[in-house]
């Protein structure tokens, strides 16, 4: 019995002295607020894309009457054709549940927006994300184009790769090669996935900034550190719709 007690005492002492892994990218700080962003992707039937966009433009007010639309874009490059991407903001999960219940009772939204559009869509995807604690949602100074860069990080979570990733993002921003709109960490969907939403005046200005950053030793060093934790990456060029709050 005495030997068992001594073993337990040593184990507890070792545990208390073990280094604690901390990261500014950890999940805790973001959850105190509760605000999250739902990423919605619609794959539209090729022959129905124009009809779909016209109907959304005409009736989007029926949907925004219930919750806040952050942005609505068509995918120009980097993904399947005839795809639209939109982001919705919610205070918490209870708020989203309330919105869904209200939509279920909104006959005008169902008849003019939902039912006509469902007939034009092949499939839909939904992903729940949080803004990372060290980033807030920024609104660009004027209209432009957006790039959604999606990074599939290696398993281990933000405690493993959060700080190197943060340094890589900030290095691009600090040198002025592009403007950061937001950094989002997936909560529901594929885990260890991070989305970075960038803004540029045009696709050509984005290309010029990217070429310059590739020759900047500060950016190269930061990216080389972060890429050690990277599994894969995909970029999409997004064109905002006229009714999109982010233009």
TrEMBL record:
GO CC annotation terms, alphabetical: mitochondrion
Name of protein: Protein NipSnap homolog 3A
Domain NIPSNAP: 37-136, 146-245
Entry similarity comment: Belongs to the NipSnap family.
One Pfam family matching this protein: NIPSNAP
An example Gene Ontology biological process: mitophagy
InterPro entries the record matches: Dimeric_a/b-barrel, NIPSNAP, NipSnap_domain
Top-level taxon: Eukaryota
């Amino acid at each position: 019995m005495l030997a068992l007690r001594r073993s337990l005492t040593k184990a507890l002492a070792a545990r208390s002295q073990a280094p604690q892994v901390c990261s500014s990218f950890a999940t805790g700080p973001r959850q105190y607020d509760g605000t999250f962003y739902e990423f919605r992707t619609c794959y539209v039937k090729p022959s129905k894309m124009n009809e779909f966009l016209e109907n959304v433009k005409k009736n989007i007010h029926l949907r925004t009457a219930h919750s806040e639309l952050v942005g609505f874009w068509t995918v120009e490059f980097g993904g399947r054709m005839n795809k639209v991407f939109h982001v919705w903001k919610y205070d918490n999960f209870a708020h989203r549940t309330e919105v869904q219940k209200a939509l279920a009772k909104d006959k005008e939204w169902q008849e003019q927006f939902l039912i006509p559009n469902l007939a034009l869509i092949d499939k839909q995807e939904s992903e729940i994300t949080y803004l990372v604690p060290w980033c807030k949602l920024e609104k660009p100074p004027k209209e432009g184009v957006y790039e959604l860069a999606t990074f599939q990080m290696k398993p281990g979570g933000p405690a493993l790769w959060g700080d190197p990733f943060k340094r890589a993002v900030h290095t691009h921003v600090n040198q002025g090669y592009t403007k950061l709109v937001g950094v989002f960490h997936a909560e529901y969907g594929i885990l260890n996935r991070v989305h970075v939403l960038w803004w540029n005046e045009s696709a050509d200005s984005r290309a010029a900034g990217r070429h310059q950053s590739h020759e900047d030793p500060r950016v190269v060093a930061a990216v080389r550190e972060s890429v050690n934790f990277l599994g894969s990456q995909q970029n999409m060029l997004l064109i905002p719709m006229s009714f999109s709050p982010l233009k």
